[in-house]
Amino acid sequence: QKMVSTSKKKKGENINTRLSLVTKSGKYTLGFKSALSTLRKGRAKLVIIANNCPTLRKSEIEYYSMLAHTSVHHYDGTNTDLGQACGKYFQASVMTITDAGDSDILTSLRNE
């Protein structure tokens, strides 16, 4: 059993609620290939990477994000957790948000 501080737990719940709001009201893509194509087209507003994403993929996405002037958030959970936070029953190591919808995830993650 791991002891998790309450502030870290609330922060994790906070981003998960924002992600679920994005999946309901906004536009997003899941997966590495679709993330690269959205970054190349310049449509991505925010890229979220799971903490167990392979290092080479992570650095490639960070490089593309740097070229596209897109902010990157390192999700504090595995690819299974990220998939579940999006309401899917599969693993997703990368999520790209193109339209936040009703969520304030873009402004809140920049302020952290």
Which features characterize this protein?
single chain, 112 residues, alpha+beta, four-stranded mixed beta sheet, 52% helix, globular
Quick summary of this structure?
With 112 residues, the chain is an alpha+beta fold.
If you had to describe this structure to a student in words, what would you say it looks like?
The chain has 112 residues and is of the alpha+beta class. The protein is built from five helices and four strands; from the N terminus they run αβαβαβαβα. The chain has a four-stranded mixed sheet, with helices on both faces. β2, α3 and β3 form a beta-alpha-beta unit. The longest helix has 20 residues. The model has no long low-confidence stretch (mean pLDDT 88).
What's the topology here?
Layout: H1 6-25, E1 27-30, H2 32-41, E2 46-49, H3 55-68, E3 71-74, H4 79-85, E4 94-99, H5 105-111
Parallel strand pairs: 2-3
Antiparallel strand pairs: 1-4, 2-4
